[in-house]
Amino acid sequence: MDLIVFDLDGTLLNRSSAISDYTRDTLAMLNERGIAYTVATGRTLHATRNLIEGHGFDLPQIYKNGVVIWNPDSVGYSHSYLLTQDEVEHVLRAFIAENTTPFIFTLERGERHAIYHTPLLNDVERNLVKMFAKERGLPILPAQDLPGDAEITNVSAIGERESIEKVVAMVEPEPHLVAYMGVAIEDKNLCWVDIHHSDGSKGDAVTTLKNELNLRRVICFGDSDNDLSMFEKADEAYAPENAKEPVKAAATAIIGHHDEDGIARFLRERFDLPMQ
Fold this sequence. Notes:
alpha/beta; six-stranded mixed beta sheet; Hypothetical Protein, Haloacid Dehalogenase-like Hydrolase, Chain: A, domain 2; Rossmann fold; 2 domains
């Protein structure tokens, strides 16, 4: 069987971070035809569940850029690549050195997810907390409340480009850490960064699914740096018009804009589905 793998933000979702009616209908057609598909996203399961529920996403799903794989059949995580205590301490020291607040994402007992942070330093960070609460639906708590047995999936932050670049440089020598960064939507002078275990990439997760599900081919769609590892492992990789230039350069082909149902329109043509 072939498997289609979708990134969400900037790819399958429109600018309102939703599945459009046209894309919804396209997924239904794929499902009716028995064409398999799943997601590979930087979001958590809890921040994704309401978006994809009822759209036929029944196969294992890749979250936190490949740090965890969720299996709907067993209602649990089948794979996880979590940060060690030493790795977390190294990352936190880097953020503290640059006077930037780290946001620590956890996986806790009962498969509870939460976010913990040190004291907020500016309005940008305070607005990020509001966004996490609104869009991600996760508890956001002070770092002193972090449970001793909590597993750390990743550490993220937003800040001035120079500070974020210095954090990335400090983390880079660590053999089992990877840092993704990009320009913040809120302000072009700001950058975001997401740091997690190097084995927890979308590419590694896609390879895991390919082997475990005995897949013949993987066809993926993505728009950002965290999709490049997936592009390397896929048999075909497509970038929407809005994708970053390095992603376009790595793609099999460039297709329509994410906010114009580019992925859905491509799939209808590719699999000979009704265009209207």
